[in-house]
Records
---
Amino acid sequence: METISGIPASYGIAIGPAFVFGHAELEIETVSIDDPEAEWQRFEKAREESRLQLEDAYSVTLEDCGEEAAGIFNAQMMMLDDPELIGTVKERVQNELINVEAALYETAEKFACQLEAIEDEYLSARALDIRDVSSRCLRNLLGLYDSPAASLGKPSIIVAQDLTPSDTVLLEKDYVLGFCTAKGGSTSHTAILARGLGIPAVVGAGDQVGQIDQDDTLVVDGDAGEVIINPTAKSLKEFQKRQAHFLEVQAEAESISHEPAVTTDGHQVEVVANIGSEDGIEPALEAGAEGVGLLRSEFLYLERDTLPTEEEQYHSYKNIADAFGDKPVILRSLDVGGDKDIPYIDMPEEANPFLGIRAIRLCLDRPDIFKPQLRAALRAGYGNNLKLMFPMVGSVDDVLRTREVLEECRVELKDEGYDVADMMEIGIMIEIPSAAIIADQLAEVVDFFSIGTNDLSQYTMAADRTNARVATQASGFQPAVFRLIKNVIEAAHEKGKWVGLCGEMAGELLAIPILLGLGLDEFSMNPPAIPFAKRLIRSISLEEARQVANTALNLKSDHEIREYVQQAIPEVNIG
Ligand code: PEP
Ligand code: MG
């Protein structure tokens, strides 16, 4: 028996034989050509085939694993049209008179290596995407059957260096019990896919994964981030017990997922979903969401060449808001900059984009982008429960300037004869420490807050959220972050305003009792987390949660807080 450690990426315990997943390496030769135009036409055909395959992959993944996992294929479709990548391939074919396979392979490899050199978890995942897309295109160019060794034949635990999105589409999902990969972090493709499928996963377990042989018996402990190779009979028995407990909890959670989130002493909170497009509606409703606490509007702006029109935005927002009927849907205005770039809006290079013209700062600078979105939102919110929220607010002035533009849009629309939502609630995200500190002042100029802990923790702790090496520092469980959250909730409640939280923490079982005890009114999370969150909230009392919050806020580290909650609230231990 041997235990290897990695990053816990998806809840639960999996037990079964290892299926060691290997890639069939492509062999690419450089060949001289004499007709670059004909060569280019071959490439165009392969790109078109790849695009159609990616569209299929998107649909299949959406059905099996939800919106977040499927979104990866949208990003890959964009790479197929990336002007820098495609432009370089074309130049090389034309200038060097070499076959397109060699030009593509070498260019994609160069781009991927550049991204990997930056040592950033997010960019490493993009490097994997570039290799995945180019390999798909190469297979199409070479007429190779697009299937690596993915035929499982029996229920198995997938073991790999890393899995590309294309690998995962081909897997027979009914036979996949769990995942163990050497590379990747908690936001890698494998992690996203495993959470979408609701199966246990440990990622980033390093070179030791190489010790696992085909058909070794494995235990994947997705809570502790450990993989046990050939466990002893005694240890296997213990894990079987824990697995049975997890399955019981899962069944129980699913059976109450459409019930309200009420504590045992009668305190009710809202449990809503984070979604990123119209494709997110179904999974959210099925999971038991009582509305949408964060609709990331970036989906309409990314993966295209021009700005979405007001009309296009109007229809999209309206479809989503209408689908939820009288349940609330909170539309967040455009949040780009930072690690999200829109090539066609010509944003100046910045040395520190996370501290630059991001989100509301960009929108206030660019009324040509902002006003169509506000107009679309005001129109779409007529006759339903759409609310509007602004990201990256750092001062009262930011809110006042934003409200001015919003009012301007409202007057214009009325003059033009449109129906507009007059009573639409207006909120802001609290994700910059300055906003958390002056929450009392901000509560006077908005209707609600939604705390964005993904950013609030990175800005509070000066720890880049995309850098795996400072993941502990960037965690929302840092005492400093909890103290800011407490300040925000108290300040808002004093002014009669409600507070939600839409960072990843809202769905983390260890955080929920503390947030509940601090008085949070709304928890917004990825749909698969909803049943578990509701089960937990329904099994504890507000009084208990308050005591936990009081104690937790006086502890001195992320680690101490997690350990304490684990002991104080047994219901958080689900595996
Ligand atoms: C956050 O910062 O917590 C948040 C929900 O927004 P995003 O992750 O889109 O920046
Ligand atoms: Mg944010």
Note: Residues 391, 431, 452, 454-455 surround magnesium ion (ligand 2) (CB under 6 Å).
---
Amino acid sequence: MPANKKLLILPGDGIGPEVMNEVRRVIEWMDRRRHVSFDIQEDLVGGAAIDARGMAITPATVERARAVDAVLFGAVGGPQWDSLGFAKRPELAILTLRKELGLFANLRPATVLEPLIGASTLKPEVISGLDLMIVRESTGGIYFGEPRGVDTLPDGSKRGYNTEVYTTHEIERIARVAFDLARKRQRRVCSVEKANVMETGLLWRQTVADLHARDYADVELSHMYADNCAMQLVRNPRQFDVIVSTNLFGDLLSDLASMLTGSLGMLPSATLGVPDSSGRRHALYEPIHGSAPDIAGKGIANPMAQMLSFAMLLRYSFDMEEDAAMIEGACTRVLASGLRTADVMAPGCAKVSTHVMGEAVVRELDKLAA
Ligand code: IPM
Ligand code: MG
């Protein structure tokens, strides 16, 4: 029996707890069938933590996250917390975890699963076989840059400001992640900024180009302005292998890329920190979708993005490629069998609940492991 792997589960708000329940079944299944056991802790974040403790994430929760091998995060936010104001918002839970744990590399794959090809609003011939990875910087840029604020001017009107800041070090380390990933894929990196408008964009472009010449000449590098990239992603997404970009542009482009695949409900993500001397790194895994308050509590959310986030956790934090691939394979087979949650429903398929979808994945896992 392998040594216990420490996990912190943070279901959060909205559909977060519902989809996380289906991951628990996969964890139980692994315990039973694969003899892998996890040492699981659970805590509150987001609106749930605001209600219980008055803040989106407590320092104690951050320390628990620091102490485990990996964090599995659900989603945070909902209309009931919108009026609390900026300093108390549920989103601070994820932003604080990224910053405090140094989770600078946000990996957002956009892969088209063949059974879902009809769920995309784009033509099948444009997206068939799409396998794209967005590497988004996630502890810097305008999300965290100082100065920031809203000031009141002498005439009583206001002035709001945020600052985009990137250092050579921050750009190099995210670019390295992208180049290293590309080496295991199609060896192509597209670096995205707005060097035509922003000084930080120019520094970004030069820094990535220098690093490429120095250490990654075997990878093909291109540069693109962020607005053009958005257009190219819709026009011909298969031209891309790995896209690397800033926190804000990466946020936008990854939402765009996710819809190429048909549903936000299908896409996982990993956010990785800096490896220490023993190679251990902090890591957080979360679906790209949010808390979806409009469908929360109805039992109709798609649990697959959360399940696939767990598969990424196995792959990146525990090097359990075989188990990760098994979970991914089980999800594809369930979709191929015609079961669908509402978000990916198609003519001729059977519309099922979150729970039935989760059960079906476990059944396929049983078959795959037999
Ligand atoms: C994301 C989300 C977050 C972000 C929000 C919830 C703070 O949109 O993970 O993409 O903007 O980073
Ligand atoms: Mg986003």
Note: Residues 91, 94-95, 251 surround 3-isopropylmalic acid (ligand 1) (CB under 6 Å).
